[in-house]
Design goal:
Order of helices and strands: EEHHHEEEEHEHEE
Mean pLDDT: 85
Largest sheet: 6 strands, antiparallel
Distance between the termini: 33 Å
Number of strands: 9
Strand content: 25-35%
């Protein structure tokens, strides 16, 4: 999937590859205090740094976001990262799929195959559930048959998003990508069409 591709809309939600045309929504979210990395939510120094980096060179910032036709080297091996913006007519957040071709294994610093973060003012409207469903369809087209997805043990909203997309709980414990006192819930997800019910209550 190239930087110009989009995933098929689910209801009013679509996944867009990052592009200059829609960068202003991402910038506005950063300026409002949103973190694209959920592990750094509320980290104002990080958010300000990202905002400054974006405003200094927007073209380079977009390039560094690693669009879908790019690979990163992590732990000495190529990791494919497909990054999308969640869109409902306005910017809602971001979601990404990361994987090694031909294996389910991931480097210890990568917290599962999927990461997502929805801006606070767009939460609890079904957008994360729909976006994850769309990403599972992307994963299926990549030939992936099983993904590991994590959420914090106390993050009930994220747990429900995963479960509504067919997530099967299999383990509880820390993950080396985060602080050792942060307990995670581990789920298997099987790529395929998104479920019909994407409401979040």
């Amino acid at each position: 999937m190239t930087s110009g591709d989009t995933a098929t809309p689910s209801g009013c939600v679509a996944l867009l590859a990052p592009d200059p045309e829609n960068l202003s929504g991402f910038e506005a979210a950063l300026a409002a205090g949103w973190s694209p990395d959920p592990r750094r939510a509320g980290d104002q120094a990080y958010i300000r740094g990202e905002l400054q980096r974006l405003r200094q060179d927007k073209s380079k910032f977009l390039d560094d976001l690693s669009p879908g036709d790019r690979q990163r080297t992590v732990s000495g091996s190529p990791l494919t990262v497909l990054l999308f913006w969640i869109w409902d007519g306005d910017f809602c957040g971001s979601i990404n799929l990361r994987f090694h071709q031909g294996t389910e294994e991931l480097p210890p610093e990568v917290s599962g195959h999927v990461g997502y973060s929805v801006v606070p003012w767009k939460q609890r409207g079904g957008r994360a559930t729909a976006a994850l469903g769309l990403l599972l369809d992307v994963a299926a087209k990549q030939g992936l048959t099983r993904l590991v997805v994590l959420c914090d043990e106390d993050n009930d909203a994220s747990r429900r998003v995963i479960e509504r997309n067919g997530g099967q709980f299999f383990m509880r414990g820390p993950h080396p990508s985060d602080r050792p006192e942060r307990t995670k819930l581990y789920f298997w997800l099987h790529p395929g069409p998104p479920p019909e019910n994407t409401s979040e209550h």
